[in-house]
Design brief:
elongated; two-stranded antiparallel ribbon; 9% strand; alpha+beta; 437 residues; 65% helix; 17 helices; 7 strands
Length: 437
């Protein structure tokens, strides 16, 4: 006979066994587990060796209260930002954790981080598909270790005054660098095959935002021991900072295809219309490519839509790598991509199209099918249509209609080809020879 307690135990075991944590890469689980153990061990050592005063406890509660008040004031903004973010996500906790790391004993700094992240997890991130409890624990652990590093940096600098210029600069620099190290290492172990400088360390905008929060934290550190009421003055700038970041994310969401991170069809069309006006005004020219992946439906039918998405992302990254910053690369939907090559002749456009076609045929995508089995998708092909302004049309619609007709001509003639207007046979052959050379 199974008792009610045994039933509860079975349910608990089943719940633990189905945690999203176990779906994470083993190296990430090991790294996170080691980080948690290290953080707890250091906290224990600090608690046993460093005494705490009542004023420090009160300061800890004050910082926690300020952080909670700030979180409540910006909760909806943070929730929207977090729901749209891909890692690394920059929140504003550094503003409160940095002063706590320097003005409090490390064990109280760890308590402060715990309170802040518990409140964030419960009030701002609860229910979001992209935020699981283990992610919150990992982020809180990294932030705690970062706080320990900032505390150590101040003591290493040898300044007796924690609010001196030397202490604040040392703490801010250590905090920024170590936070990047801990976060980047965790992101690497989460997806080592997709690791890049931007995925691990974030964009310039991400780093500027984090540096801004650290700078505000440094100002709070300087003011808090002497004029604590003045700390309230940072609330409005923080609110406006988070709001401006949200607006930027919304703008990117409105202009970017979320699957490939290229321009969406509407934004690409708007940019192309502006380029037509510029070319007409300056008597210039440009090339346009329409890229259609051959037999793409077979990938979705064979391996599943997630595998197909990985192929689309791979092609998008390839197209972006083979075009210039001033060019417009976008996704028109499905398996169709478009590129506008500014100030490019027909021969130059064909050369780029041939290079993209060739690289797609060499592309190797490592992904998983619907059953979770590892698969390799390779030897894919694409049909590419090329058109130019003003030779193939005086409007973007006319130019793209010519490129679209060329795509269909490529598909009718065996696919895996670059085709343009009738006089392109010789140009295409010359471009193919140039790529081969």
């Amino acid at each position: 006979m199974i008792t009610s307690e045994e039933h509860a135990g079975h349910r608990s075991a089943l719940t633990v066994a189905t945690w999203e944590l176990w779906k994470r890469p083993k190296h990430w689980i090991a790294y996170t587990g080691l980080s948690v153990v290290t953080m707890l061990a250091l906290t224990g050592v600090f608690a046993a060796s460093i005494s705490i005063t009542s004023s420090q406890v009160l300061l800890c509660f004050l910082l926690a209260g300020l952080a909670i008040a700030h979180t409540e004031a910006t909760r909806r903004i943070e929730r929207q930002r977090r729901s749209m973010s891909v890692t690394p996500h920059i929140n504003m906790t550094s503003v409160w954790v940095l002063p706590g790391a320097i003005l409090l004993p490390p064990q109280l700094a760890a308590l402060l981080v715990t309170v802040i992240y518990l409140h964030l997890g419960y009030r701002s991130w609860a229910g979001l598909r992209t935020v699981n409890p283990h992610r919150t624990v990992a982020n809180a652990t990294s932030m705690t270790l970062t706080a320990f590093a900032a505390w150590a940096a101040v003591h290493f600098a040898g300044s007796e005054d924690p609010t001196s210029v030397t202490s604040i600069c040392a703490a801010s620099l250590a905090f920024f660098l170590m936070n990047a190290v801990f976060t980047g290492t965790g992101l690497y172990f989460a997806a080592p095959k997709k690791a890049s400088t931007q995925t691990l360390l974030g964009s310039w905008d991400d780093n500027i935002l984090e540096a801004s929060t650290v700078c505000i934290g440094g100002l709070v550190l300087a003011v808090l021991p002497h004029q604590p009421v003045l700390v309230l003055l940072v609330f409005l700038p923080l609110y406006l900072l988070q709001r401006s970041v949200l607006i930027k994310q919304l703008e990117e969401l409105a202009t970017t295809d979320q699957k490939t991170q290229l321009l969406n069809a509407t934004t690409w069309q708007q940019g192309a219309v502006r380029e037509v006006a510029r070319a007409e005004r300056e008597n210039g020219q440009f090339g346009a490519l329409m890229i259609d992946l051959d037999h793409f439906k077979n990938i979705n039918d064979t391996y599943g839509h997630l595998a197909g998405d990985d192929v689309l992302k791979g092609v998008a990254a390839l197209v972006k790598a083979e075009t210039r910053a001033q060019d417009l690369a976008g996704r028109f939907g499905g398996e169709e991509f478009v590129v506008l090559l500014t100030s490019s002749s027909k021969q130059e456009a064909v050369a780029v199209a041939e290079r993209i076609r060739q690289r797609i045929s060499e592309m190797v995508i490592k992904t998983r099918d619907n059953e979770g089995n590892s698969v390799i998708i390779e030897q894919r092909t694409a049909s590419v249509g090329v058109a130019t302004y003003p030779l193939d049309g005086r409007s973007i619609d006319d130019v793209m209609a010519s490129a679209d007709a060329s795509v269909y001509a490529a598909k009718r003639n065996g696919r895996n080809k670059v085709v343009s207007s009738p006089d392109l046979g010789k140009v295409t052959e010359e471009a193919r020879e140039a790529v081969a050379a």
